[in-house]
Structure prediction request, 354 residues.
Amino acid sequence: MSIFGRALILGGVLILTSCGQQTNGGKFVGNDVTSAAFGREFRLFDPDGHQRSLADFRGRYVVLFFGYTQCPDACPTALARAAEVRKQLGSDGDKVQVVFVTLDPERDTDLLMREYTSAFDPSFLGLRGDLAATRKVAEEFRVFYQKVPSGSSYTLDHSVLNYVFDPKGRLRLLWRPDETAAQCVSDLRILMKSERPFWRFFS
Amino acid sequence: MKSKILVSAFLLVAAGVVDAQVTVSDAWVRATVPAQRATAAFMQIVATDGARLIAASSPVAGTTELHEMAMVDGVMKMRAIPGLDLPAGKTVVLSPGSYHVMLLDLKAPIRVGDAVPLSLVFEGPDKRRTTIELKVPVRPLTDATGGHRQP
Prediction:
């Protein structure tokens, strides 16, 4: 075999190896929903009272999910995973904006949303709307939720997917709660790699 | 006199055995931020002869309930349950994704370093009720060690 041929094979092996280490062989663990006709926009308010929409985060990856702070279980676990994902991404973590949308705006006040999201990561953003805006954003994201009377108050049944947007604001992936932080990091690395200009492919 | 002391010692040991029928371990409460009014306690419980957890209470909470979480078709559901059966000798795990003791209407924030008093009332196979008093340590709000029950 010529030296040129060997170099090609070695090059191929090296590329495959580096993909395998960083990006799970180039395959998404999450559900690829690129071009989906849902989850395209939201208009909600941050704890300072400013209206925020998906367009505000162009140039960054957005990981968005829904929940409520009275949940002692699935919601803190989702926020803790998102914080771990940013940590594991190292310096690339700054490219990721985590957004937590409350489905319980009656109990989740601006103050509570700020305190709650900051406890996990000061960069996390909590968003809320009134009941009509909450209903609208849930419909746009196909989020199921419903109030259920429980004991002295109520709980919320709600779907628990995470929505991952690329820097152009396109919905790309859905993560389930049983995907690990490392698997989510692998997915984001694949997305980040595909966003690189071609002349930096080998850098 | 000597025999009387012996009898007392025997009774104490016997009482100990009866109370040790139910063992609670690895209990923890999730910390809260100041504006939060609810949290939960998690633990492992073993009842050697079987029992049922029928009630819980804590001075830090206005209301205390037993809850079950379940993931059904990608939807997380949380429900109050009237009691939790503890089959004989089996470790029942109260953890994120399964059961918890819900602490509602908190009177003050729960902070890491606190010891949260928690009373658990069990009913044995003979219908006799036993109360176990715990001082439960607090883990950070961000704790994710519990993991999820797979859907």
Notes: Residues 1-23 of chain A have pLDDT under 50 and may be disordered. The two ends of chain A are 28 Å apart (CA to CA).
